[in-house]
Amino acid sequence: MNYDNEKFSDLLHHFKSRKEYAAARMSDLSDQGELCFALSGLTFRDGPYAFPGVGELREVRHPPGEIELAAALRNKSLLSAVARHMPAVTHELALRCSEPKFIQSNLNIGWWIISALRCRTLTEILVPAVASASWDVLPAVQADSCEVQLLEDVPAARQLSHKVEISIETLDWVQANLEHWIKLLEQPAFRLATDSLTTHHQHANLRMAAAALWAGFEALFGVNSELRFRLALLAAAYLEERGPDRLALYRRIKKLYDYRSKAVHGGATSDDRLTDHIIEVRGLLSRLMCHMTEAGKLPTTDEYEERLLS
Fold first, then answer.
1. pLDDT, position 85
2. C-alpha span between 1 and 17 (Å, rounded)
3. How far apart are CA 5 and CA 11, in angstroms?
4. Structural contact between residues 89 and 133, judged by C-beta atoms closer than 8 angstroms
5. Tens digits of residue pLDDT in 206-260
């Protein structure tokens, strides 16, 4: 009996200390309203990082547990789906916003920043949900007051490579190029490439992940005939100057595309080979998209031809 009482006392102390931490954290945060995107699996040690006038990327030290979520959430039907992601949540992108918080323009800003970060770093994070308050303060918010919207409820998303630690330089790149990124997303080809690159690891089937990446790759060049030759030629010409590096990349992309056809059309292969293929192709796609973002535009057919032939 004494042992049970001790366990109960420890449990009460645990929830009390978490609530005290959340209350203190709440007093430290800005009085301005925030919309907070939970980031699962992000590694970033130098935060918080400010996006001036927009918000900040910061650590979530104590993501809420199921009991704390049950008390805080307005929509209790989301409890199970949200709770299963919380142990892996490490950071949040907190955007400053006024009511109503969940309007599409606010959600778009979060997606623009996160998608640019994913493209630049190839970090395999999930964004399971977005909340009307910091995930760190939920134990101290008024009961039934926190609004939450599910975003990427994909617990089985793959970790295809080692975790990438986000650097300040990477975030500076996102901030410096965000305007270009947003404008490029208005073009269907670049939007498809972005969707392909940022969600490929969420496919349950590795062949589908590879197919998604190549769909994005093909979209950037608008190629609809002689795919293997023209994709390899145009991509190599865009990424490398004339010389042996361009020729080597051209030949490598042709080989990658040959394997793509085998994988997509059901040819015999292995998960290890598919994984290696996906990692290499997404690296090339990331390079292409980052070059285009820095340039602020997708090259035209004439520009590709000039680079090839002049």
1. 94
2. 24
3. 10
4. no
5. 999 999 999 998 888 876 555 777 888 888 888 988 888 988 998 888 888 888 8
Backbone angles phi, psi at 102, to 5 degrees: -95, 25
Q: What is the pLDDT of residues 74-119, one digit of tens each?
A: 999 999 999 999 999 999 999 998 888 899 999 999 999 999 999 9
Burial of 187 (0-12, 13-18, 19+ CB in 10 A): middle
Q: What is the 3-state secondary structure (H, E, C) of 124-149?
A: CCECCEEECCCCCCHHHCCCCCECEE
CB atoms within 10 A of CB 219: 20
pLDDT band, residue 4 (cuts 50/70/90) = low
Q: What is the strand order of the sheet 148-150 is part of?
A: 49-51, 55-59, 89-96, 34-40, 129-131, 148-150
Q: How many CB atoms lie within 10 A of CB 253?
A: 24
Contact between 74 and 147 (Cβ < 8 Å): yes
- List CB contacts of 287: < 8 A, sequence separation 6 or more: 239
What is the chain's mean pLDDT, rounded?
Answer: 87
CA–CA dist 172, 3 (Å, integer): 53
Q: Tell whether omega for the bond before 48 is within 30 degrees of 0, i.e. cis.
A: yes
Give dist(CA 225, CA 89) in Å, integer. Answer: 44
